[in-house]
């Protein structure tokens, strides 16, 4: 496993990180989830990403219990705040940030997280209030650093221009061969300002593994076939996307790796990417995906891959 510095922080994070969206505490049976976390450590993953809203606290509670016997300095722990935790608890107001960080720490069974992230931008709360509240969380020692997910270039720049507050060290955008939007503005702004990307859905919910075939029945025991995990992948399951992905398989074969490894290595070719978050329901998935770390692939193959998928867009 290779490691990269997270923005201007002193955190070194594994190039492949373990996510818990839709999986732990929710869609994956507990014993399998525990096995995945244990395998992640065995493979050198030191970065674990979660959020308070994942299973309305269930993912954090699962991780708190599962990580309880591990030394706290042996892993980098990140969580997030913004989405509704109840009919009245949501957003990035000072009151919510103060309430939700304490609730997250209690579920995670720790006195601090390494990274506390705004899960989205809150248009109902003044940015200054949010930034000051996040800065207080850091001053209180409840979080070491702060980050954001899916903020617009204008929102990022407004936060960077604000004096007297903590500076962001991470951005968590969706990014993959099939979704390259951050390249235009977000990555350049962040690269200039000591902010690294932590990428979610680098395999487009598993579509870039190549296991979903055009016109074929969805395979059993996959994310797409799961009632609890399958809703978000459906926008990718259209014929143009699936046909394009199948055309990538010969390129991965030329590179002597699996298609998943090829797609993850493509993400990691970008120096501003600190880590690619993967989900896993089985330990062997992590074994395959972590092998993408440090993989050297001919840039010409990546260029061919980009040309193949350039016209393929998800539905909706």
Task: Give an account of the 3D structure.
The chain is α/β, with parallel strands linked by helices and 316 residues long. It has a single domain, classed as TIM Barrel, CATH 3.20.20.100. Helix content is 34%, strand content 14%. The protein contains eleven helices and ten strands. The strands form two sheets. Strands 3-4-5-6-7-8-9-10 form an eight-stranded parallel β-barrel, surrounded by five helices. A two-stranded antiparallel ribbon has the order 1-2. Strand 7, helix 5 and strand 8 form a beta-alpha-beta unit. Helix 1 packs parallel to helix 10, helix 2 crosses helix 3 and helix 3 runs parallel beside helix 4. It is globular. The chain starts with a strand and ends in a 7-residue tail after the last helix. The mean pLDDT is 93.
Radius of gyration: 19 Å
How would you describe the shape?
globular
Number of domains: 1
Q: Mean pLDDT score, rounded?
A: 93
The helix count comes to: 11
* CATH topology grouping: TIM Barrel
- Strand neighbour order, sheet with most strands: 3-4-5-6-7-8-9-10
Which homologous superfamily in CATH is the superfamily? NADP-dependent oxidoreductase domain
How many beta-strand segments?
10
Low-confidence stretches: none
Distance between the termini: 36 Å
- Share of helix among residues? 25-40%
Largest pleated sheet: 8 strands, parallel, barrel
Our estimate of the beta-strand percent is 5-15%
CATH class category label: Alpha Beta
CATH architectural designation: Alpha-Beta Barrel
Structural class by SSE content: alpha/beta
